[in-house]
Amino acid sequence: MINQHQQLISDFEDKFGELLQNYSRLKEENSRLTAELAQKKEDLIEAHNQIVNLRSNYESLKIAKSFGSTEEDKKKAYKRLTALVRDVDTCLEMLKD
Length: 97
Description:
The protein is mainly α. Helices cover 94% and strands 0% of the residues. It contains two helices and no strands. The radius of gyration is 29 Å and the shape is rod-shaped.
């Protein structure tokens, strides 16, 4: 009878030890995931702000083009717009991650 109680206590201690280990592991994983989530949120905000700025620049370029300019200005604007579109594509790729 005493041996049976000792076995139950031993089993309980083993299970409790496993539970504590799992708790510790999950707590660390939760901390890591929380930090990762915070970083992703910061990245998302940064990408959003960049998109807003790029849209603003795009609108400015559209307005400038509507006033008519020289061919050289149009080429510069086209190059700038192409670069902005690439930046938007980069931002969208970052958002997918």
